[in-house]
Design the sequence.
């Protein structure tokens, strides 16, 4: 070989070494630490926050940080969830990255990896056995352990734990609070929360959480800490009262002995549950499915702390268990009640057998004259026969493909979508559950894009053989500029999957219902960007038709009570020509849609309500979204 | 037999053309029998996709294997005025050219037969959960397997000549044994296995391995045919000189 070529070969390892230098220098230098749950306390079957601290002692890195949790049987491809996000790890600094992951009952491993320049520069394994499991969790935002008394609600088995995360460690995503029954804000040791932390609490309450603000002198910190928009009161100062009494059980007031320091507040939104004269003692505000409480007194301070009704008070405030958002064991797509109701109306089917019969007959009919040769007088020459045969076969191929793969049936990804929008009038927000069932005639890998960074995403697995339950898939969620990208959904041939997305989103729709004598006055304001179709207000078991309410429109209607539709609403509220809406309405009717209760507004939206897209897919028919707005007055 | 001669014979002979029509009728019937009659909803609910494409493709493969052997041994051809072995014994025709011409014709005629059955596969594509690339892969697998079986038939013709009973006693069991043993012992070479992989594991390279292996087998059988004819000629030469 020529010496010049040898010289270039000599340069090659040097070039390789230089190109690999950044990765090699970073290798192993980055260290990770994770705070899982609330001070290590998690709840099985719920989502938990994870705060990953990545310490980079070297130079600045553009890194990809992944957090994976796996569960299920230890064979084959493990079901799980991998969340990936990009981060800039500044030089000689520690970056804290918040994640939210599910903690299923059979969780195996939690593994974090940090990669930079296509090389792994750090990793961390968290042993799930090192986590503390609790039946119920109450988060205390307090500078001391003053709320420990609440744990007595869990009974002698200690199944209720009070966790005191640092202000900086509070989740920034509402799903991080999924395992929490209540958040009790006592004081923030004069620190201010991040806007996204307060927003996360608000959206969590909307999903069914209970937020309690305690009073006393510490209440003066609440507004400064950033809770102004959540508080049902405006705090003006501090006052003291003696002999106040609370009525936790109807008609049985219980007196708190001694002099109590109280927050002097005026109600801004919500209703007063207990008061001492004009001074509100307990104020409740409903927000979506959840509640926000304000107590004017401090239950951790004397004399309330030693009052015999304190435990009853906490039991009254924290109430029952909230509905979890984690749905790792989603039902298979075709067994989901919404999809089971929608699918028969989808008008999708295999091409009929008589179409195949016509095709076969036509093809054979063209072939036969070319292939049935008489012994004599066969005047067709071989090249001509060959050409004609090729032409017939080619035309039949094209026709078969076109008719059975495009016109009568399509192998593309088909998506069926339905949404439920739950809101309360004046909240300005709604809790949305959107389900998308998708299937394809051919096996393919499916990607979904959700234009929301904090949505809770779950997917059902494929139906296992012999009717066994669905196996959870391993989903890959990547946060990008668009929101969340979902990968890892591998569809089998004619396999159907269900993707469920839950989130709290702005929904500025309000309604009011006033009854005077035999007339009903209804005002509906749609401040959102999407029209509401075929709206009805249901009051006292009767439904009043509002019609369509366009985006930005305020509709005012007056009815006489006799105008209202009777108890069998479903058939009348949905016109017979819209079978899909009728089916979804029927599927949700069992969830108390038209039952007796406070007034509510029911309207239809064009789904997808949430910004969910499946690249390369086509929708199957219309996608109904049912909005339910409670008009309960505070 | 040169390619033009072969085409002239295969495109004018009544029996051969009729066998092609039978092939098309059989595939058409198979398509109608396995056409999904359940609703799409029930297929989605059970998670069981109709196997229309796979079944039609397997039928096509079986037919092509059978026809390949029969065409290979010239069972369906009109009786030639002079048999192959006689031709080799009596004329100094180059054996490579003789077998090469037949091999080229085997490939071309196999292509024509593939073309004949392709519309049924195209119709069964979507309902069978397959896509156009899978159609072409299936055709490649079927075509290669048919070429291999046809070359095996040619080898039998070269070895046994016109002794039909002996030829059939040996040939068909050998073809069946080859296919069964490939399916059980060497799955990547088995066209049945490859067809299943084409539909059920679209990303798998098994179709390519199987196609290349069967083309290789066809080439090997053609080579063995040359050797067999050389032996026939050598024996004939010895007899003449003896």
Sequence:
């Amino acid at each position: 070989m020529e010496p010049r070529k040898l010289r270039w070969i000599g340069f090659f390892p040097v070039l390789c070494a230089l190109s690999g230098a950044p990765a090699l220098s970073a290798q192993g230098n980055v260290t990770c630490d994770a705070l899982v749950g609330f001070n290590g306390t998690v709840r099985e079957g719920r989502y938990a926050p994870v705060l990953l601290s990545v310490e980079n002692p070297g130079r600045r890195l553009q890194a990809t940080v992944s957090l994976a949790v796996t569960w299920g049987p230890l064979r084959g491809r493990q079901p799980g969830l991998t969340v990936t996000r990009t981060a800039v790890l500044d030089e000689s600094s520690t970056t804290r990255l918040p994640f939210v992951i599910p903690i299923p009952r059979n969780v195996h491993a939690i593994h974090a990896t940090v990669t930079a320049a296509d090389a792994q520069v750090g990793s961390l394994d968290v042993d799930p056995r090192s986590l503390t499991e609790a039946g119920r969790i109450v988060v205390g935002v307090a500078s001391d352990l003053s709320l420990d008394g609440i744990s007595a609600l869990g009974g002698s088995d200690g199944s209720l734990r009070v966790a005191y995360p640092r202000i900086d460690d509070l989740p920034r995503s509402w799903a991080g609070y999924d395992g929490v029954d209540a958040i009790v804000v006592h004081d923030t040791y004069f620190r201010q929360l991040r806007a996204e932390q307060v927003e996360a609490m608000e959206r969590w309450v909307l999903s069914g959480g209970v937020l309690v603000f305690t009073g006393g002198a510490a209440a003066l910190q609440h507004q400064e800490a950033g809770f102004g928009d959540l508080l049902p009161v405006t705090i003006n100062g501090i006052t003291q009262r003696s002999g106040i009494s609370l009525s936790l059980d109807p008609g049985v007031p219980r007196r708190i002995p001694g002099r109590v320091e109280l927050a002097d507040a005026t109600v801004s939104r919500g209703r007063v549950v207990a008061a001492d004269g004009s001074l509100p003692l307990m104020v409740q505000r409903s927000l979506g499915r959840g509640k926000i409480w304000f107590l004017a007194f401090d239950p951790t301070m004397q004399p309330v702390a030693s009052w015999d009704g304190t435990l009853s008070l906490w039991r009254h405030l924290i109430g029952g268990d909230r509905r979890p958002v984690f749905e790792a064991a989603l039902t298979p797509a075709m067994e989901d009640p919404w999809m089971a109701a929608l699918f028969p109306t989808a008008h999708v089917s295999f091409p009929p057998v008589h179409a195949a019969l016509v095709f076969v007959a036509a093809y054979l009919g063209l072939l036969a004259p070319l292939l049935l040769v008489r012994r004599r007088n066969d005047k067709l020459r071989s090249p001509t026969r060959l050409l004609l045969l090729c032409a017939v076969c080619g035309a039949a191929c094209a026709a078969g493909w076109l008719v059975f793969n495009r016109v009568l049936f399509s192998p593309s990804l088909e998506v069926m979508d339905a949404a439920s929008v739950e809101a309360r009038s004046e909240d300005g927000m709604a809790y949305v559950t959107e389900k998308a069932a998708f299937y394809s005639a051919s096996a393919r890998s499916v990607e979904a894009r959700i234009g929301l960074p904090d949505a809770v995403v779950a997917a059902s697995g494929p139906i296992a053989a012999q009717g066994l339950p669905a196996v959870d898939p391993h989903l890959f969620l990547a946060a990008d500029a668009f929101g969340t990208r979902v990968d890892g959904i591998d569809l089998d041939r004619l396999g159907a999957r269900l993707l469920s997305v839950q989130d709290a989103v702005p929904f500025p729709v309000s309604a009011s219902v006033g009854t005077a004598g035999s007339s009903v006055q209804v005002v509906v304001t749609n401040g959102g960007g999407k029209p509401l179709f075929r709206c009805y207000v249901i009051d006292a078991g009767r439904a009043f038709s509002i019609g369509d309410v366009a985006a930005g429109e305020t509709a005012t209607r007056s009815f006489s009570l006799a105008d209202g539709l009777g108890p069998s609403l479903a058939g009348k509220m949905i016109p017979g020509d819209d079978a899909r809406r009728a089916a979804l309405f029927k599927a949700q009717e069992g969830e108390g849609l038209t039952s007796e209760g406070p007034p509510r507004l029911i309207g239809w939206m064009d789904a997808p309500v949430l910004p969910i897209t499946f690249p390369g897919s086509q929708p199957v028919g219309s996608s109904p979204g049912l909005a339910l707005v409670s008009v309960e007055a505070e | 037999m040169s390619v033009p001669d072969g085409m002239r014979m295969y495109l004018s002979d009544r029996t051969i053309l009729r066998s092609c029509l039978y092939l098309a009728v059989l595939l058409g019937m198979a398509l109608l029998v396995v056409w999904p009659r359940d609703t799409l909803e029930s297929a989605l609910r059970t998670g069981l996709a109709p196997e229309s494409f796979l079944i039609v493709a397997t039928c096509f493969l079986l037919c092509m294997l059978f026809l390949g052997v029969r065409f290979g041994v010239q069972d369906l051809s009109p009786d030639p005025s002079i048999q192959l072995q006689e031709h080799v014994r009596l004329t100094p025709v180059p054996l490579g050219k003789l077998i090469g011409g037949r091999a080229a014709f085997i490939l071309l005629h196999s292509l024509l037969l593939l073309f004949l059955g392709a519309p049924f596969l195209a119709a069964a594509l979507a309902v069978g959960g397959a896509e156009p690339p899978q159609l072409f892969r299936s055709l490649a697998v079927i075509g290669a397997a048919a070429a291999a079986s046809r070359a095996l038939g040619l080898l039998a013709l070269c070895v046994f000549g016109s002794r039909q009973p002996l030829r059939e006693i040996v040939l068909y069991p050998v073809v069946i044994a080859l296919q069964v043993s490939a399916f059980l012992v060497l799955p990547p070479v088995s066209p049945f296995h490859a067809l299943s992989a084409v539909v059920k594991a679209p990303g798998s390279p098994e179709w390519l391995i199987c196609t290349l292996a069967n083309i290789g087998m066809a080439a090997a059988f053609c080579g063995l045919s040359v050797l067999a004819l050389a032996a026939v000629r050598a024996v004939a030469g010895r007899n003449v000189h003896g």
Observations:
- Residues 27-128 of chain A form a domain with the Immunoglobulin-like fold (CATH 2.60.40.10).
- Chain A touches chain B through 59 residues (CB under 8 Å).
- Confidence is low (pLDDT under 50) at residues 8-27 of chain A.
- Chain A has four domains: 27-128, 134-318, 353-371+381-407, 506-630.
